[in-house]
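# nightly structure sweep
# worker-07 picked up a monomer target from the shared queue
# config: single-sequence mode, recycle default, output format = structure tokens
# input follows
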Amino acid sequence: MSAADRRIAPAPRTEWPEHFEDHLAGIGCPICTNDFTAEDIAWGLLINKGTFANAYLWRSGQVRGYVVVIFTARHVAEPTAMTSAEAAGFWNEALAAGRAVEQYYRPLKLNYQLLGSVVPHAHFHITPRRSDQDPAPGGPLPFDVLDHGRQDEEQLQSDARGLRELLGCTGSSVVPR
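# output follows
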């Protein structure tokens, strides 16, 4: 089977997600409704609490080590709406999470995606790509691989502890080094 045959084609969209324009404006934004002081936001486990963003080891999907870094300073859909300090801080905190993922999982490559076409709130998807068991080697990873399925909870908890240690975060109140 060729790499192209193994790729999962995304479902075509015919319209923007429901309430997209409201969410874009910060009204009912599904990301803003999270408690960013919590260690577990149901979608993922907090591995680093930063000044501008929190990093979470995500529960969904089929890729072990999938991390989402969410801008938490305020509702922002586009990085261009951030101040220079916010943008630099957001990127630096995403890089810290990426470095921890690289060190912990030793992937072949990391992908950083900042899209916001489904949930318009600034957040990075950091996805480790592996030389084996990659559903789309050499190409973009289909979001179905990140959205469908769940991570093994015991492995997820163990990985979160390891990533927190690398990021200098400990205990029930996860704080940056």
